[in-house]
Amino acid sequence: MLRIEGLNAHYGLGHVLQGIDLEVAKGHIGALLGRNGVGKSTTLKTVMGLVKASGGTVTLDGQVITGREPHLVARAGIAYVPEGRLIFPDLTVVENIRVAERRPAIDWPLDRLFGLFPSLAERRANKGSQLSGGEQQMLAIARALASDPKVMLLDEPSQGLAPLVVRELASVIRQLCRAGVTMLLVEQNMNLAEAVAHRLHVMVKGRIVYAASPEQFRAEANEIRSRYLTV
Amino acid sequence: MQLGTLALLLTQTANVLSQTALLFFLGVGLTLIFGIMRVVNFAHGTIYMLGAYIGYSLARVTGSFWVALIVAPIIVGAVGVAFEAGILRRLYGRDGSAFLMVTFGLALILGDVVQIGWGASALRVAVPDLLSGVVLLLGEPFPDYRLFLAGFGVVMAIAIWQVLERTRFGLLIRATSQNPEMARALGTDVQLIRSGVFGVGCGLAALGGVLASPLVTASLGMAASMIIDAFVIVIIGGMGSFVGSLIGAFLVAFVQVFGNFYLPELAIAFIYLIMLLVLIVRPGGLLGKED
User: Which among B11, B210, B220, B262 could disulfide-bond with B55, CB atoms 3.0 to 4.6 Å apart, if both were Cys?
Assistant: First the structure.
């Protein structure tokens, strides 16, 4: 569904993505792990068109989308749940969702989103700034779904959330996966990534250095952790 | 005597409301443009003046003030869209001074265009026949036209507020003003929103210009006098806030009308005093965000 081939990106003089190859099959969850600053978030931003690719291609459902403006990437079917959630603070919960809903949603109309996130239904008229961190994260996901995406990109969704809320998040991600949503997940939280992903990728300095199934990853977890993930 | 004081108060209040309407058309456009682009449009006063002159010509050619009132803002709005799409669009991502220079340049060019096209002398615009009479407010005569301005201001303020709150265009304007990158990543064509808002803002300024012209004549000086008021309104109300522009317009109008009546020498000083107080207590303006 989503194929990234030889993706390169530069920030000023820094060569932050040095040929990323990655594929997420339809209905699957791909996870991207790695230390701070290795280029995980940049990979998502480059797919989104928020950072300009300096080489390589991104293909969505057979269609090359590299080089498109972010709003056209979104309209092609990629939804973005950014790091820090970036909820519109002065818009209500419903308005936040409506921004992304360019035409009446078929797969994810408002009632289905509220069925998935009952706490958001209760707070539908509240401003984004009045929500807790966990509620904001759920809203960021609901907002992304409202565009009926083919692929959803999630950047550090567990960041700053209490363990109980992270568990809820994992359950939501699994439910979405069962509903057929394809996802690419960037995470620092290895346990969450390992619990939900079909394939795990580890990045070091702008490259993917390791990729494995969750079973294989679990078997080699200690070694991978000390080599690539812990500081 | 008692009734006379009351009548005076009433007509002065009606004056405040009609003046608020004129100032609001200018301030709301400036604040919407700032909210969405983080750009101060230095040409806003000149755009207002251009509206008055184009309105003058349209009223002469068609013989109808009402045609001028509708068509002039559309023409000026189109000029605004063209300017945004042709020139401002190349400057996003640069620092604010680039916008100041370019919009200031536009103000100079449009000022010259007006002077070449219409001449340097002030032009009289007649009050439309329908509104050339007076009404009696508790026995005091009050011009119909000013009463119309006050009412029209209220109607337009409600209409703009409803567009912002209830339409998709309004929702995307608000989302873009809060976080343009995120709005883009959710599929919003932010470029289109910017052009649209710049056009609407310029059109509203032109509407103010056409409405003001029967009261003050169309003149080259009207740009400079209004741009200062518009900045004061937006600074008092808070950059980017719709309600703030309404409150700012009312406060400035109040001080102008009552100040000119009771303490004409100090009226202008009062406006700056209020602005100073607001800036001390709330640096971001009454309803603005401090950033």
Answer: B210
Q: Name the residue of chain B whose CA is nearest to A80's CA.
A: B185
Please give the DSSP secondary-structure letter assigned to residue A231.
Answer: -
Segment A133-154, tens digit of pLDDT? 999 999 999 999 999 999 999 9
Burial of B208 (0-12, 13-18, 19+ CB in 10 A): buried
Q: Which of B102, B140, B98, B197 is nearest to B14 (CA)?
A: B140
* B289 contacts on A by Cβ (under 8 Å): none
**Quick check: A95 and B172 CB within 8 A?**
no
In whole angstroms, what is the distance from residue B152 CA to residue B154 CA?
5
Residues 45-84 of chain A whose Cβ lies under 8 A from any Cβ of chain B: 48, 50, 69-71, 74-75, 79-80, 82
Domains in chain A: boundaries:
85-142
Domain B2-281 carries which CATH code? 1.10.3470
B290 pLDDT band, cuts 50/70/90, is low
| B236 contact partners, CB below 8 Å, separation of at least 6 | B244, B247, B248, B251, B252, B274, B275, B278, B285, B286
The residue of chain A with its CA nearest to that of B189 is A71
Q: Which residues in chain B are closer than 8 Å to A89, comparing Cβ atoms?
A: 178
Which residue among A69, A74, A89 sits closest to B186, beta carbon to beta carbon? A74
Q: Residue A227 has what DSSP assignment?
A: I
A85 contact B CB<8A: no
> What CA–CA distance (Å, rounded) separates B283 from B291?
9
- Residue pLDDT, tens place only, B166-207: 999 999 999 999 999 999 999 999 999 999 999 999 999 999
Instruction: Tell me the chain B residues in contact with residue A144 when contact means C-beta distances shorter than 8 Å.
Output: 186
Q: What is the distance between the alpha carbons of residues B167 and A206, in angstroms, rounded to a whole number?
A: 43
Q: Which of residues 157-176 of B touch A (CB under 8 A)?
A: 168, 171-172, 174-175
* Residue A11 DSSP class: E
Residues A172 and A120 sit within 8 Å (Cβ to Cβ): no
Q: What is the pLDDT of residues B121-154, one digit of tens each?
A: 888 888 888 888 888 888 888 999 999 999 999 9
Selecting from B172, B178, B187 the residue whose C-beta is nearest the C-beta of A89 gives: B178
Q: Which residues contact B269 (CB under 8 A, 6 or more apart)?
A: none
Angle between helix B2-37 and B144-166 (nearest 10): 40
Q: Are A184 and A32 in contact (CB under 8 A)?
A: yes
